[in-house]
UniProtKB/TrEMBL annotation:
Keywords: ATP-binding, Nucleotide-binding, Peptide transport, Protein transport, Transport. Residues 4-254 form the ABC transporter domain. It comes from Lentilactobacillus farraginis DSM 18382 = JCM 14108. InterPro entries: AAA+_ATPase, ABC_transp_ATP-bind, ABC_transporter-like_ATP-bd, ABC_transporter-like_CS, Oligopep_ABC_C, P-loop_NTPase. It comes from the Bacteria. GO terms for biological process: peptide transport; protein transport; transmembrane transport. PROSITE patterns: ABC_TRANSPORTER_1, ABC_TRANSPORTER_2. GO terms for molecular function: ATP binding; ATP hydrolysis activity. This is ABC superfamily ATP binding cassette transporter, ABC protein. Belongs to the ABC transporter superfamily. Pfam families: ABC_tran, oligo_HPY. The keyword Transport applies.
Amino acid sequence: MSLIEINNLKVHYPIRGGFWNRVVDNVKAVDGVTFNIEAGETYGLVGESGSGKSTTAKAIIGLEKATSGTVTYKGKDVIQAENRRKLHYNHDVQMIFQDSLSSLNPRKRIEDIIAEPLRNFEHLSKDAEKLRVLQLLDIVGLDPDALYKYPHQFSGGQRQRIGVARAVATHPRLIIADEPVSALDLSVQAQVLNFMKKIQRDFGISYLFISHDLGVVRHMCKNIAIMNRGRIVEMGSREDIYDHPMHIYTKRLLAAIPETNVTHRKEHRQRRLEIEKIYQEQHQRYYDKDGMAFPLTQVSATHAVALPPDEAQQYRQNKRNEGVTI
Ligand SMILES: Nc1ncnc2c1ncn2[C@@H]1O[C@H](COP(=O)(O)OP(=O)(O)OP(=O)(O)O)[C@@H](O)[C@H]1O
């Protein structure tokens, strides 16, 4: 049995409009996602911005309400909050966020930030708690005087280490890492990634590693799923995805990885342009097949107002033709 099984997970956001503010459409942020994570592995979830990766992560951890589907942990569906409590799911599954500055409370000292999950789940004595926080600081390579400092007094890489210390405090079985290094410089990225690997070896943790960067994912993940517009378009081992990509979207993402070898640059650019052209054609068909008049991002609540006036008018007209009051 896998550590966690995600089956046909959907998160649809309603779009309201018209005089009665009724639901006129849905943004299908996640639309039928299925994958499993094995104990001790790092599973990669890759896709461009807006493909639904973060919403998938939030639905798995329970920060976002799933419209339908199941997330099975220890044989039970943890979409039900009651099961989450019973199975110690909130203790066993932790998250690391991309933006360490906004995910760490700026008014709290590092001691309190790292101790927070311990206070929620383990109820240790004051001394035992302090000792544990000091051990965690040591594990992530920070000095004991960090205890009394605030998040803004650290660099981005150090803050991300603090996020990791907080996530591993309760010895979780799975850490969902949502773009954990994309805000960092390349050299610091490598440091944090290697460090995450070390923690994994030491503690036997699994990761769901979310990124838009196929270069980084290659370094971290054995199995990978490629996400586009709320769906997984391709999944497989690292070798399958990098050496024999099947889906045009995967090929396009791969072609976008910068080519460092100068002699291959021209060839690479040519290949990238060809793939981009095929993608544009298929992209159009993708929408037609789904019967959508506009790209998903354009019908989302946040983007609907940003439509050019003539397209917005056309959109409303199409909706009226479908019998929707708008
Ligand atoms: N609360 C919301 N209401 C309406 N639409 C939303 C909401 N949250 C996300 N979306 C839409 O869902 C889609 C997926 O968003 P999501 O943040 O999961 O993508 P992502 O792949 O994680 O992108 P990024 O890496 O930029 O965060 C986007 O089109 C976004 O506009």
